[in-house]
Amino acid sequence: MRITYGPWGETIDEMADAARRAERAGAEVVWIPELHRSATVPLAALARATETAQLGTGIALAFTRSPMVQALEALDLDEISGGRFILGLGSGVQRLNEDWHNARFGKPVAHMRETVRNIRAFWAEAAGGKPIDLPGTHEPMRIRGYQRPFHQERAAIPVYLAAMGPAMTRLAGEIGDGWISHELHSPQYLADAILPGLSEGLARAGRTRGSLDVVASVLCAIDDDPAVARRWAAGTVGFYGSVRTYADFWAAHGMAAEHDAVMAAFRSGAAADDLAGAAPDHMVDAVTAAGTADDVRRRIMAFDGIADSVKLSPSTHGVDPSVTRLCQDRIIDLIATL
């Protein structure tokens, strides 16, 4: 099982330093999400700060850039990093796409299929100047008279897909080089809800299980007092608990009522980053690794034999940056022992 890490920083320099330290501790991939920063620009800085770790978008929003822009940014980052880039894509939720980005959402599974198809076609054909003519409901692509004249590090870059719902999970197994879990996750959910769908997608494409990197995300909060660690992690649990789309995820953990309570607190006017108080300890324990260093190590290793990789990250929502920084330092120290 590979140990990978999602570095945090109030500045990109701090993020790059965390990536460098995580790599030295043994992290094999560093991942950058897309929300408060873009997923791609910071990776250019991390490429210069690291030497061996792969660099992944974990995840970039698939529908807010055109497939051609996604493909070009991926080629640039692969060149900067010397062939270490992974393009991780996710659909996001409809409101985020349409209200925040004025982007088309449509039928997300079909949309994602066409997006990945176009990106890979561009990588394969743009250097040779061959015409690209791909019909589609969501992302038709027609390119004539174009040839990219620059160095291309690799003809194909790994594409990982984030998925929670069954249809998108099957698609990840069918067309992805990897699958990435949501930031909140559990070994039970991976084994019972995700792996069967991935296996179905792999079977559709005639692929073997070894062709897919299954990446389980583990949100970590480490303190000698487990109660303190749980409260640090509770802010992120509350933040995502405010999203109605994740109802099936919480129901699968037997926590539909707890999810409803977080949603009610959000509807009553609480900010998404101020919902830690609405997330009880047992809800936190179900989907994070919060506790002493030994507690967190055990939680991480519970994915061994189920996941191929784990993506560790510190608590970020509803806590002061000094807490996130402390969690990050403790996680990097823990990586060196795994």
Protein described:
It holds the Pfam family Bac_luciferase. Keywords: Oxidoreductase. With 338 residues, the protein is of the alpha/beta class. It has a single domain (2-222, 289-335), classed as Luciferase-like domain (TIM Barrel), CATH 3.20.20. The chain contains 13 helices and 12 strands. The chain has helices at 12-25, 41-49, 67-81, 94-100, 108-125, 166-175, 187-205, 226-241, 247-252, 256-267, 281-287, 293-301, 321-335; strands at 2-5, 29-32, 54-57, 60-61, 85-90, 132-134, 141-143, 159-162, 178-180, 213-222, 289-291, 309-314. The strands form 2 sheets. Strands 1, 2, 3, 4, 5, 8, 9, 10, 11 and 12 form a 10-stranded parallel β-sheet that branches. A hairpin with a 6-residue loop joins strand 6 (132-134) and strand 7 (141-143). Helix 1 (12-25) crosses helix 2 and helix 8 (226-241) packs across helix 11 (281-287). The longest helix is centred in the middle third of the chain and has 19 residues, at 187-205. The chain is globular. The chain starts with a strand and ends with a helix. The mean pLDDT is 97.
Helix and strand pattern: EHEHEEHEHHEEEHEHEHHHHEHEH
From the N-terminal CA to the C-terminal CA, the straight-line distance is: 10 Å
Mean pLDDT reading: 97
The largest sheet, given as strand count, sense and whether it forms a barrel, is: 10 strands, parallel
- CA radius of gyration: 20 Å
CATH-level-4 superfamily name: Luciferase-like domain
Give the low-pLDDT segments.
none
What is the name of the CATH class?
A: Alpha Beta
Secondary-structure-derived class: alpha/beta
The proportion of residues in beta strands is 15-25%
Q: Examine the coordinates and then state which fold CATH places here, giving the name of the CATH topology.
A: TIM Barrel
Total number of β-strand segments?
12
How many individual domains? 1
Task: Give the % helix.
Answer: 40-55%
Coarse shape: globular
Helices, by number, come to 13
* CATH architecture title: Alpha-Beta Barrel
